[in-house]
Amino acid sequence: MNEAQRQALLEQLRPVQLPDVSAWPAPGWWLVMACLLLLTFLLYRRYQRYRATRWLREARDELRRIRRQVQHQPVRTMLADCSRLARRVLLASHGREAVASLHGEAWLQALDQVCQRPLFAGGVGRLLESGPYQRTSQLSQDDLESLFDAIEELIGAAGRYTVRKPRS
Fold first, then answer.
1. Which domain holds residue 146?
2. Whole-model pTM above 0.85?
3. Over 90: is that where the pLDDT of 24 sits?
4. Is residue 152 classed as helix, strand or coil in its secondary structure?
5. With 80 as the cut, is the pLDDT of residue 163 above it?
6. Is the dihedral of CA 60, 61, 63, 64 positive or negative?
């Protein structure tokens, strides 16, 4: 094949037609964007859950603080602190309207309802009702530990029991 024939064959070839540049990103970039959106959504949901359970972490921290002060505070003060903590847990899980007016036996039964067993109205939880107001308290260390365990169970149960407020 001589040079003239080769040149004639090359002239018969058409130029290469490159496709137009698309305004849409390549499929890989769509996948990257979808992954970023999913990651953003999951992080946002995790942050929402973290904020929604803040009161549970604070209640557990408060109970730990009360437990650490067993040797340093009078029993009446600790019982009053436990009573306040139990009321705050019930307020956080049920809402102010349902809990604020409860006292006495009704309050203890509401605590039992959250725990789904009679820890308060029929157990050591009765100390929350009358203990802070008694002159001297004849409580053993076991009674206090049982009360702390009951409140710890209340906190855990309240985190699962939380009443959802209707959307308006």
1. 55-161
2. no
3. no
4. helix
5. no
6. positive
